[in-house]
Amino acid sequence: MYVFSTECVKYQCNILDAHSLCLFTKKEKMKERRDRWLNKISSIKLAKEQQVAQAKRAAMPVVGDMRPLADALPELCQLIPSTTKTSRKASRKNRVPVKKKPEPTDFSLMKPAQKRKLLESETSRFSEAVKNLAHTKTNPLAAIGEHLRKRLKQEEEQGPS
């Protein structure tokens, strides 16, 4: 029985191409076979693509100067109606105003943004009332009453509008 080193096996594989497969391991043989199979498939696919491309080129008529065709077609700006500022203003005037839903007065039905707005406005009003109380230390109840009257008058003016 002969024992060959790897250098000897490679040398023998180069010399004996027909018998080289018997000196490879099973994994190497399978890998080589798979590579050949993939190469065959890719070459067939490439040949088909080239054939299809050739058929497309053969079927396509040769077109000469396309300038007359381009001149005959209308410009894009002619197809799309121009919108000017006057037409926009006119269309705005013709629109029917969208009715907004009245804001809920119940705090639990309000959306978070509405709640935040209400709290901010009430906080500012309260701070105004406190400032007014600081200026009128003689009669704080009269100052609160005056502030409430102003507030009610302001809400009545905003309500009918």
Automatic annotation (TrEMBL):
Q: Where is this region: Disordered?
A: 83-107
State the Pfam families in the record.
SLX9
Q: Which residues form a coiled coil?
A: none
Family membership, please give it.
Belongs to the SLX9 family.
Q: Which GO terms describe its cellular component?
A: 90S preribosome; nucleolus; preribosome, small subunit precursor
Species name? Hucho hucho
Name any Gene Ontology BP term: maturation of SSU-rRNA from tricistronic rRNA transcript (SSU-rRNA, 5.8S rRNA, LSU-rRNA)
Give the record's keywords alphabetically. Answer: Nucleus
> Primary place of residence?
nucleus
Q: Report the subcellular localization.
A: Nucleus, Nucleolus
> Compositional bias (Basic residues) at which positions?
86-99
**Name of the protein described by the UniProt record:** SLX9 ribosome biogenesis factor
Keyword Magnesium in the entry? The reply is no
